[in-house]
Amino acid sequence: MDIVARATVAFLFIFFVTRIVGRRELSTLEPFDLILLVVMGDIIQQGVTQNDFSVTGLLLAGSTIAVMTVLFSYLSFRVSRLRPILAGEPLILVEDGELIERNLTRQRITVGELLAEARMQQITKLDQIQWAVLETSGQISFVKRS
User: Fold this and answer.
1) Residue 74: which residues within 8 A CB-CB, separation 6 or more?
2) This prediction's pTM
3) Could you give the CA distance from residue 118 to residue 128 in angstroms, rounded to a whole number?
4) Which H or E element spans position 6?
5) What contacts 88, CB < 8 A, 6 or more positions away?
6) CA distances from 25 to 46, 55, 129 (A)
7) Is the separation of the CB atoms in 69 and 18 below 8 Å?
8) Eight-class DSSP state of 141
9) N or C of the chain: less Cβ packing under 10 Å?
């Protein structure tokens, strides 16, 4: 039962860290970030199993993480008040060609990064953008002015 408690704490820790890190960073992993994630995974595994290499320990830890994932998904689906906390909400970065600096700063997105994403969508100037929205996945969606 100790493994279940540690796996639950690990799941909540990972959930909290990913919310703090931000969507944008998680959607654009650099090599260092990938290595950091692998190292974090190993550190968390050691904390969850505490050198319990048994099949039972593996099944308990894996099942706990899976159940917590399904539970959070279900709560996000069924309880609309929890959805912004559990799944996040899209965030408007540009409206009518004007940057919303507060939202860019909050997500640690530079104007250069935003413009680079816009160029990938064949948009060359901010005034061509009706809306730029940072989706919950970390991708930026652009709606061109008509």
Assistant:
1) none
2) 0.68
3) 10
4) helix 2-21
5) 19, 23, 136
6) 25, 35, 23
7) no
8) E
9) C
